[in-house]
What we know:
Layout: H1 4-10, H2 28-37, E1 40-45, E2 48-52, H3 55-58, H4 61-67, H5 71-74, E3 77-82, E4 87-93
Antiparallel strand pairs: 1-2, 2-3, 3-4
Amino acid sequence: xxxxxxxxxxxxxxxxxxxxxxxxxxxxxxxxxxxxxxxxxxxxxxxxxxxxxxxxxxxxxxxxxxxxxxxxxxxxxxxxxxxxxxxxxxxxxxx
Length: 95
């Protein structure tokens, strides 16, 4: 009696590999600029607030100078802030 297992292993598909595209780590200067210059706050409840820079604020000369060439990347950054402890919970970056 022929083994069905032998046929199964012979027809295995090859694993497809994809080149991983990774972004470099978010510079601390971007996080600092969002904390210092944010103008959008969204209450998330439980003492947490989401902080962001608006498009208008990103055009401000002081903010643009602080961000330098990271200005476009900073547009997609949001910081989840703990109001009670005055600390960052998480830094989020849009893909």
